[in-house]
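Write out the 3D structure for:
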Amino acid sequence: TNMKTPVHKPPHSLYRRLRYKVGHVRRSVAYYSACMLGRDVYCARTLKCDSVLYGQGDGAWCVAKDRLSDRPKVLSFGVGTDISFDLDMHSKHAAEVHLFDPTPLSQQWISKRPLPSGMHFHPYGIADHDGHVKFELPVNHGVSFSMVSNGPAKQIAECEVKTFAAIVSELKLE
């Protein structure tokens, strides 16, 4: 007889869950390794609350539901090329959103996208002083510039930065 033995494949949803867990473990190991090497900062979860996820992928952030006002003001620093969180906050909560990123790749990317009314882009970053800072784009990153030198850089940019107090004063958020 010419019967083929069926190949056992896990159900699609099981395969998807397994793939997600493997990806989660891989991202977790990469994150904790970067923290141990001083290339990232570890922030332990200190508050448990009912939260909602806005945005997608690397641009996703959790927000405490009960902490949102009727028309929240969002200050989003280092937006890069992903403003999915900001667009969600604006569309779902009529938030006034201020996007900040001093790096040339982000400025170029954002200049090609019309922002809805109530969303504003500011071409400077945040730091502990007002002035200019050297930002480096590491060789292994696409758009994530850093003020911390982590080896060879494929691009270096001198960018404007302001303190949080100066930004709050400039935007009249006090």
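Residues 102 and 124 are 4 Å apart (CA to CA).
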